[in-house]
Amino acid sequence: MLGYVYGKGHVLNTNQDLGVKVATPVGTFVGQLLFGWLADVVGRKRMCKSLALGTLDFCVLALINILQMASSL
User: Is 70's pLDDT higher than 80?
Assistant: First the structure.
C-alpha cells in the first residue's frame, strides 16, 4: 500500500523499503518503553481509560473530517 501511494511505479525503492523495515520495530520499541513508563507513573487503569478515550476522540474527529470531505464532492 505504501508503494502504491508513495512509490514510483507503485513500488518503493530500496531505501524507502529499508526505512519502513527499520522504523517499524524502532517505533514499537520506543512506544513500549514510553507507554510502559507512563502507565507506571499514572497507573495502569487510568492509562487504559485515557488511551481508550483518546482513541475514541481521534476516531470521531477523523469521521467528522471524512464526512465533511465527502459532502463537499
Answer: yes
